[in-house]
Every structure is written in C-alpha cells, then in structure tokens.
Amino acid sequence: SIWRYSHFFLALVSAIFILIASITGSLLAFEPISEASKSYVIPNLDTIYISDTIENLEHKFPEVLEIEVLPNNSVKALVFTKDGISKNIYINPVTGNNLGDVPSKSKFFSFIINLHRSLFLKSIGRIFVGVASLFLCFIAVTGLFLIARRQGGFNKLYTKVLETNFAKRYHVILGRLFLVPIIIIAATGVYLCAEKFSLLSEPIFHTNSKAINSDVLDENIILSPSVFESITLQELRKLTFPFSDDSYDYFELALNDREILVHQYSGKVVSVLPYPFVKLASLWSSKLHTGQGNILWSVILLLASFSLL
After folding, report:
1. What whole-number distance in Å separates Cα of residue 242 and Cα of residue 147?
2. Which of 14, 148, 166, 235 is positioned for an S-S bond with 132, CB 3.0–4.6 A?
C-alpha cells in the first residue's frame, strides 16, 4: 500500500539522521532532569515579585545590570560586586544571596548539542536535521494509518496487539504509545530549524514614540504605576536595567507573552510589545523540544527518544 511504501521509504532515507538525533536527544534529556536537583533552583517563583527581588539584590550589590529567570526555575543576575568586579551569578531572590557563579556550558553537552543540531556541518547539517525531522513527522502519520489498518480501524487503535514477532510487536506498541510525543519532537524540530533559517516572518515591534520621547507619559498606555509590584518571577524571562541615569533610558522586561518598557523614575509602563504568534510558537517549540523546566516532560522525551531507537 502507499502508506507502507511511504513509511518504509521515509525511514530508509532519514534513518541515519534520526538515529543520531535519537541518541543525542536521549542524552540531552538528562540535562534538565539533572538540573532539577541543583541547589540554585528556586521553588514558588509565582509568589516572589520583581520589586522584592530588586530590593534584596540592591542590599547585597552596588549595581545590578540584569536579572534572568531560566527555564529550570533558577534565577541568575549580572551584578557588580563591592570590589567593582562584574559577576554572573545564581541568586536567591528572597534573600539576595549569591548561590554561586554561573558555570560555562559543559563541554560534553556542548558537543552533544552541536551534533544534535547540525552534525558539526553548520548550516548544511541543520538542513539535513530539519529535513529528517520533517520526514519523521510523515513517518509518524503513515505509521498511524498502518497501525490502524493492522488493528482493524482507528477505533481499535489501542486494542491488544496480536503480532507474535518481537520486533514487529514492540514496533507497534511503542509506536502508538509515543506517537504524540514523537510528532511534537519532530514538529518543533522543524519549526526551530525554519526559524533558524529565517523562513518564518520576523515579528516587528512598534513602540509609542510619543511616550518614549516625552517626559509627560501618555495616560492611555500607562498600565500600572508600580509594575514591578504586580509581576512575579514566574512571568519574567529577563529584566535589563537602564544603562544610564537618562530619563529616556528604560527598564526592559521580557515576559512570557510580551515585552514592556518601564520608566526608571516614575515606574510607569511607557510601551507594551505583545508577542505575535510566531514569537510565542518559537518559545513554546523550544520548551517542548528541550523539556527545560519540566521534569515529567523531560522523562517523556527521554522515553520517546529510546522508542525511536
């Protein structure tokens, strides 16, 4: 049948790439799992407000340049110490204490990431991996039709497998058990590859120039006089502090669904930049593809990668 030949041909031409991606993906799935047990992971970020974090840090350090909340629920900050040394550190936002320097990426994981993304072939390798991910989407879909045919219809998709051959039996069992995670892995891989090569429309953010260029802020765009007191670290991705004391230099907040500029003296929001669908899809694709910040999903990704093998 066309489904069987399509399933076989797609698997044949992409087998080596899927094999490498599965092995490296299995190894990378261990990283977010291992990070969850680190001492710098902060629980209950939804109860900690940005204003409290800033206040606590300013008691500990003479200058703060950036605060970033990582997917694994750790919080890092770029600060100047009392000795005038710039340090990138993990912090406890409740106390402002330094929990340790942010280490450089492990050479092992850096090696695996480069192999997983591009096979060390740079742009050409990314194309190969992206096409293999697209083929994996089609393999999953054609496999779904083959399983339905084997089982006697879609309504019997998850009924008992009668096949006695070990390889064929577990090909069916694992295929239908991890069908959804495999499709998500493949689809997000294709999306991230397309984004890398600028095949998707770039989001263009428009700010209100009247608000930015005037000391008198437009009341129509003021959301809150104390925005830092209303946003928790759970909503924050990155906060960049003003570079200078100039009133036209603003706090820049990157949240989960938008970016905003905040006047450094009045604390009022002067510009709101909602993320378009392309940007939101990119953020979600990265989370779903890597499993960062979610141990359960990381374990599912690990098992799905094993099932592909």
Report:
1. 58
2. 14
Task: Tell if the pTM clears 0.90, that is, is over it.
Answer: no
**Cα 232 from chain centroid (whole Å):** 19
Q: Give residue-wise pLDDT tens across range 168-177.
A: 899 999 999 9
Buried b (16+ CB within 10 A) or exposed e, 42-69: beebeebbbebbbebbeebbeebbebbb
Three-state SS annotation for 67-133: EEECCCCEEEEEEECCCCCEEEEEECCCCCCEEEECCCCCHHHHHHHHHHHHCCCHHHHHHHHHHHH
* pLDDT (tens digit per residue) in 195-222: 888 787 765 655 554 444 444 444 444 4
Please identify which residue in the block is written with the tokens 């009392």.
82
Does residue 85 contact residue 63 with C-beta atoms inside 8 Å?
no
Q: Which pLDDT does position 185 carry in this prediction?
A: 96
Q: Which amino acid is at 280?
A: L
In sequence order, the β-bridge partners of residue 262 are 251, 269
**Location of structure tokens 């047990």:** 37
Residue 204: left (phi > 0), alpha (psi -120 to 50), or beta? beta
Could you tell me the sign of the dihedral formed by the alpha carbons of 203, 249, 268, 240, in that order?
positive
Asked whether 167 and 111 are in contact (CB, 8 A), the reply is: no
Strands (E), the chain: 63-69, 75-80, 86-91, 98-101, 236-240, 250-255, 258-263, 269-274
Give the C-alpha separation, 210 to 212, whole Å.
Answer: 6
Q: Please report which helix (H) or strand (E) contains residue 245, including its range.
A: none
* Residues written for the chain: 309
Paired tokens of 157: 């998709």
Tell me how far apart the alpha carbons of residues 165 and 178 are, in angstroms, rounded to a whole number: 20
Distance from C-alpha of 251 to C-alpha of 239, rounded to nearest angstrom? 7
Annotate 261-297 with b (16+ C-beta within 10 A) or e (fewer). bbbbeeebbbbebebeeebebbeebeebbbbbbbeeb
